[in-house]
Amino acid sequence: MTTFALYNIIGVAAAVGATFLALRANSTSSVLAYIALIMFFLGDTIWLDNSSIIIWGIIACAVFIIDISRPGEGGDKEAKHAPFSTLSAVYMFVGSLVLALVAYAADSHFIVPGAVVGAFLALLAYVKTPQGTAIPFPGSEFFHYFCTYALRIILTATIIAMVIGVAATRHIIMQQLHDF
Question: Is the pLDDT of residue 75 over 50?
């Protein structure tokens, strides 16, 4: 087994772990998603420049700091939160991942806005289900819920969509060069 294959195996494990942690409202999912990005970069699965790696690291750290400093998470246990639902997280993750991939296919610069719109639309769809009636839309509770739980989901889905998109693009280019 080569070193590159080992990096890719660790990257897949980290991406899967980040997904499960994001769906469980765990604040470490953003850091684990960034570790997955680094492993795929080191494993030569994706081609990114160093500035992109640094920027995504800063974003992952910012999301982690925001997550651990939220009221009710650290010192303020009295703060009221919208009721967390794993099903709503699944809705937001799938919506975010799908629209991030569609946006990446259109232009890679639209991957983050695509992920945000996907998560928003998916949460909007969730509140229309019988399980989602606890989060009224429109209203401040809906936007509070979205801002509280969607950030780590959007980051994780965006990194996974970016890895899928870049790896698929690389595969297509390599296939065309091989056929040439």
Answer: no
Q: Are 133 and 127 in contact (CB under 8 A)?
A: yes
Peptide bond into 71 cis (omega under 30): no
Q: What distances in angstroms separate CA 120 from CA 3, 29, 170, one per listed residue?
A: 39, 19, 30
Q: Could you please report the per-residue DSSP string of the chain?
A: --HHHHHHHHHHHHHHHHHHHHHTT-TTHHHHHHHHHHHHHHTTSS---HHHHHHHHHHHHHHHHHHHTSTTTSS-TT---PPP-HHHHHHHHHHHHHHHHHHHHH-GGGHHHHHHHHHHHHHHHHTTSGGGGGS-SSSHHHHHHHHHHHHHHHHHHHHHHHHHHHHHHHHHHHHHHHH-
Q: Which residues contact 172 (CB under 8 A, 6 or more apart)?
A: none
Burial of 90 by CB count in 10 Å (0-12 exposed, 13-18 middle, 19+ buried)?
Answer: middle
| Cβ(8)–Cβ(36) below 8 Å | no
Predicted confidence band of residue 72 (pLDDT cuts 50, 70, 90): low
Show Cβ contacts of residue 68 under 8 Å, excluding neighbours closer than 6 positions: 27, 74
pTM of the shown model: 0.80
